[in-house]
Structure formats: structure tokens, C-alpha cells
Amino acid sequence: MTNREPNFLENVRAELSDVRVCVNRAIVLGYAVLAGLCVVAFTIAADWAFELFKSLEGSYPWAILIWTPALTALIAFATQRWLPLAEGSGIPQVKGAIHPELPPDRSGCFASLRLSAGRMLLGAAGFAAGLSIGREGPSVQVAAGVMQHARRWLSPSSTIDTRALLIPGGAAGIAAAFNAPLAGVVFAIEELAGRMEARASGVIITAIVLAGLIAVSAFGNLSYFGVTKVPQPGWSLLLPGLLVSLASGAAGGVFARLMIASLTEAPERMTKWRARFPIRFAACGGLAIAVIGLVTGGVNFGTGSEYVQQMLAGHDELTPLYTMLKFIATWITAWCGVLGGIFAPLLSIGAGIGDGVAQLAGPSLGPALIAMGMAGFLAAVTQAPLTAFIIVMEMVD
Which domains, from first to last, does the chain contain? Predict the structure, then answer.
């Protein structure tokens, strides 16, 4: 028995024979484009808001002692009042929405167009306040909320369910935010789905590619941190690399433990005060972040990505003290309960760890150790080593 060669035209004709299937696919692709556009819009809004804050800091540095606490309190109030389930980075909400034990009609509580719009607005406000946040986690919830809305337009017989839309939506958010499509695929498998379902794999990859194309069209085909020049690795990298791995792993474990403790099992008095007076607690956290920013000359505001770029270029910007203060500022920001991601700040902290070791080992090893620190610290906090590795690999080209 001989195997018949596949007939391309016959396969295409078979695919197009069911008009409703074609319409369903067109709807999903349209929403994937819309998800990418929303992430691009959020990126532009966040960058504009942070430039506004930097302008205020440069002209009236002491004014941020009022501006940052006041705006942080306002963000906390708006979150508590209108978007209580949007608090935090956005990734836990998407994971909750795709949890198999969650009733299908409840997924909209964690990902919806309303939550996406609110997260974009309040996320940009967090950058305007100068908080130590990133936009990658929120981008996951923004894109997932947009993608899940496609389900109401699909035919009842469609095999594309809400879960199959939320997973590519969240992954497309990572791909568009970092301009790292491969990281989006790995993120979908490792962090969201746990495995790639055959019936959803085409939807996931197509959505990620489309969202990535939208980001590339808006910002250009550039890696997040530019092109990193790393010399040929040798045995001289072994001990410094091991030290970076141990330091970033230990620091990442401490950060994760602090996050768990502060959000679930902090000292009882602090827990009660935060629950009873969330707005005042956020204002105090904003004041602490403003003070840290003044002490460090603004290094700890925002994502810190501009300082990582300078470190990769060979200019030391983060001393070990500044790295520790960035660590504290990121933890306090998350503790305040505002809307903001932690991926980019974690990469900045990891880069500071790698740069600190490079100052001892030699400047020629700096780029390699900085990249190792970023991947190691992110992997230790998120418990997603493959995603961390791929994200850093694509970001430093």
C-alpha cells in the first residue's frame, strides 16, 4: 500500500468548506490583533506617564514626597472600589480564570474587557506615581481580557472555549510587551497551560505571532535591551557564574517569601491595619518609595530598564546598595496593593546582582553575568525557569 502525497488544494478546499469554521477563525484572529493593539496602547500610555513623572521629579524633586503617596492612595482607592480582582500583577488572575475547577461563567471575574480597560488606566497611573512596577504582568491580563471576549461571537459548536482564548491572550501579552514571541509560547506552556493542547496550539501560536507583529509594527524589530556583546565564554566565567546563580537564587527565594508573607501571613498587626485602612497603608508605602527614590537619585522609580541597558553597555549604575533598595521598593509597591507587574523590576534587580559580581570578577564578564543574574532572579521568584531563560535570551538578543 502506497502513501498518497498530500494534495494542497484539496486540503485548502476542505478547510474552507465549513463557512462557520472560517468565520470563527477570522473572529479569533481579529481579536488577537486587537489584543496586540491594546498592549501597544498600554505601553505608550505607561511610557508617557513615566516621562511625566520624570519631568516632575527633575523640576521639583521634593514634590514627589506628596505626589507619589497621594497618587498611590488614589490608585488603591480606585482598585478597591471598582476593580478589587485586578490587584497585583495580572498573571495570577489569568491563571485563576483558566483554572479547571472555576465555573466557565465565572472566568469573566478575572479577565474581561472592563478589567482590561481599568488595568490599562490604573497601570499607567502607577507609572505616573513613580512606583517600582512593570507593564508585562498587566499586559497579560489586558490581552487575555480582550481575547476572552471573542467567545461570545463564536458559534456554540466551536471547539475554541474560553480557556483556549485566555491562554493565547495571556501569552500574546508577554510576546507583545517584551517583543519576545518565543517567550510567549514558552510562557503559555510553562506558566499558564502546563501543557500545549493540540486543538488550541494553532490558536496560541497564531495569536502570539499576530500580537508580536503589531508590537513590531509599532516599535520596530528591536530587542528590549538592545544587542548584548558577550565575549567567548571560558573557564574564567565558571566561578563568577556560580556565584551569580547562588546569589540570584537565594535573593529570589527571599523576595518570593517576603511577597507571600506580606500578602497572606504578615505580622498580625500589620495585616489587620492593611485590611482596615488600605488607602492609608498605600499612602505610607508610596511615601517610603518616594524617600527611597530621592536617596538613590531616582534609580528605583519605574522598571529600571534604562539602567540595565547602561550596565549592559559597560556603565555601572547600580551599586549593591541601590540593588537592595530596588528590591525593597518593588516589594513595598506590591504590598501596597496597586496594579502593576513585577517582571521588569525583577530583571533590574537580577541585573544589579550580576553587575555586583562583575565588579569583583572583571568588567569583561559583565554582560554575561548581568544576563545570568536577570534569568536567575526571575526564575527563582516566578518558579518558571524556561520562561525566564527565553525572555532574557530574546531581550538581550
Answer: 17-219 (1.10.3080.10), 235-395 (no CATH)
